[in-house]
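Record 1 of the preview.
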Amino acid sequence: MSIKNNKQKKGKISTLKKRKPKNMKNIKRPIKKVAPKREKRHNMKETGPARATPESYEELLLNGIRYNSNEYNEYVVDDCAILFNRLLSNLTPSLKEMQFRYGAGIGRMLYKSCMSSKNPIYNINPVIGLVDFFQSIGYKQIIDNSNDISGFSFAIYDSPEFNIGSCIHNLESGIISGFISTMRGMTTIMREHECISNGDDRCAFTETKHLIKSDSNILIEDTIVEFTSYMSNRIIKKEYTNKHFSMLYNQLLWHSLLHIKYSDIINKLLYYSGIQMGNAINSNMHLNSKQKTIKELERIISLLNFGELKVKSVKPLNITVEFDVISSRRQFVDASLAFIKGFLESQGMRKQLDAIEEKRYNKYLITIKEKK
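->
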């Protein structure tokens, strides 16, 4: 049997040359999988407050009020905005209780913030931090009896005035309760037993053993009509007070009120309030032109701090409502839009309008145009 010699010559290596196919388009090449880049998105879910880095939304507002360091803290709102929020938050017993419990959480947060600060006075008497906070809000005349052996008491003398026959400062009651409870290390409930909105000369808070209860039944529709009439008279007569409050605190109030559980009912109340406000303004001023109507709406939105309304044109109607970074919360934007729709409905214009919402650089912008 013959054996073939397959040995290669030394120094030479046999190689196979790869031929290039004539048609390169038909060759399927492997696709490299690249991990997608993560986009930075702001949490606007309805399930809870968005997280700001490194603080929550409540902490952001709280520290902005306390330290006066936030760029928005220099802005103030008219007491009409505070009164309107108070009115809505006291219409049902469940809303009252929710405000109190929310305030208690803010109070606990406030105490920890005061004690972690470098102010030595707070270590001696932490209640001074609570007084400083309320003064930063806009309440200037405050008296506390923290050294009274009979029990702690707290009083505010310059609260906005509008008598609805009930004590309305449930959020403040909660803040004071949460603060004192954390300071003492035991549950302390502070209840408002005197209120300017109940015909008293001051708003006074004292210790109690029971949770907050409804003082009286409030007729929702009648109360809203009464308040819109009160506010429209102030607008017509230009009777503005010198009482101004922190815009950040106003946003804290709305954030506590616009809970997902109550957002639908609050928006319905705001829509109804817008209708009643439009009716009250129209009956007193006889708005016979679209230009006058939009002008009054612009003043009302400014007083209630429902965004910044700008009029591009009246015929055809084209207006925008812009919300800054602090106010650009989904729930608050919807609440403002509900009030505006109610006002325009009272003037017979809502069915002729389109509302377009968009978000620009963490700010919301609503454009309301007349249908062509």
